[in-house]
Amino acid sequence: MPTIVADDKVVTQINVFTTTPDHQQALIDLLKEAAHAVRDVPGWRSASIRRERDGTRVVNYAQCDSFDAWKLVFEKLQDEGFIARNKALGTASPGLYEVVFTLVKT
Question: Is CATH 3.30.70.100 the right assignment for the domain spanning 11-97?
C-alpha cells in the first residue's frame, strides 16, 4: 500500500507516460508485469498505476524505502528489458519525490 507521510524519507517515483489510446492498455500491462518482477527487491514498497480516461497518459506511482533501494529496482528493470519495452509504448517523464506535506480530511 502506498505510504504518504511527510518527511518519512520514502522515495516516490512518479512517472507520467504519454501514449496513444491503442497502446495504453499494453503499457499498463507492461507496468504491472514490471511491478511483479521487482516486488522482491529489498526496499521496494509499492506500485500504483493510473490511466487517463482519454487513453493518452498512464501514471506509475512507485515507492521504495530509500534512494539506494530505488537504484536496485531501476537496475533490475533495466537489466530485464522493461525500460526498453516501455519506450516502445510511450514517452516517459519520470521524477523522484519525497513527501513534504500532506493534509487529510478526518
Answer: yes
Closest CA to 93 of 66, 56, 43: 56
Q: Mind listing the pLDDT tens digit for each residue in 73-85?
A: 999 999 999 999 9
Beta strands in the chain (DSSP E): 11-18, 44-51, 57-64, 91-97
Cα–Cα distance for residue pair 71/61, rounded to 1 Å: 16
pLDDT tens figures, 4-36: 778 788 999 999 999 999 999 999 999 999 999
pTM, to two decimals: 0.91
Centroid of chain to Cα 23:
17
Q: Are 10 and 63 in contact (CB under 8 A)?
A: yes
What are 94-97's contacts with CB under 8 Å, separation 24+?
94/13, 94/14, 94/15, 94/16, 95/13, 95/14, 95/15, 96/11, 96/12, 96/13, 96/67, 96/70, 97/11, 97/12, 97/13, 97/14
